[in-house]
Amino acid sequence: MSVPLLLVGGGRMGEALLGGMLAAGRPAQDFAVAEVSAARRAALTATYPGVQVVEQPVAAEGVVLATKPNDIAAVAAAAAQAGAQRLLSVAAGITAAAIEAAAPLPVIRAMPNTPALVGAGVTAIAPGAHAGEDDLAWAEAILGAVGVVVRVKEAQLDAVTGVSGSGPAYVFLIAEALSDAGVLAGLPRDLANTLAFQTLLGSAQLLIDGDSPANLRAAVTSPGGTTAAGLRELERGGVRSAFLEAVMAATERSRELGSR
Fold it and tell me: In the chain, where does DSSP find H-type helix?
């Protein structure tokens, strides 16, 4: 007996997808999770009653591959042998062609990011050679439970990795720096954290609401004012250039990992 969806890998991303789909109203009986760690299996069983949590993969119509990259080919082959109809991989660096070589099925590659853990992620998906519109819609239904989904060409996934895959780490670094600066200026740490973190949240919401970064920045920057003085120092320190270089370095590293 097969389940509609098997998640192979019950780590943070696998659990985020499971929790998001359950919160969206899908019944627990639709899912199985294969996880090699006994401790994780126990935790998942306790947290998600009704979901089948097993050590080895079981038969399923569709399979989400959320394991370590080195395990993807073997898991994909086992899923195909068990009757899976399509695969969704969230493993970085493993091409659709490599997965298709192990399992002659429709494959969708995805690059999610860690805000998926709180339902605010953004995931780019790309079809493999045998994936069609139905397969893309299937992947969107899964990943849409934890945030926004966009479609890209597979060749663009390395750049996606550089921007949104690695992007949360860049934002966290900004948060650290803003808080540290507040402490340097004389604020207690808890207050500096509140001011920095809420500023990032509110600023992101203004961007999501639709205005451009340039317009929003200009609206905050009075001629000769405090913000203009601060921005001058950021430009002098090469912050813009540093972000460009960071994204390009992460993109190139993603290409290197995918070529192994």
Answer: 12-23, 38-47, 72-81, 96-102, 133-143, 157-160, 167-184, 189-208, 213-220, 226-236, 239-258
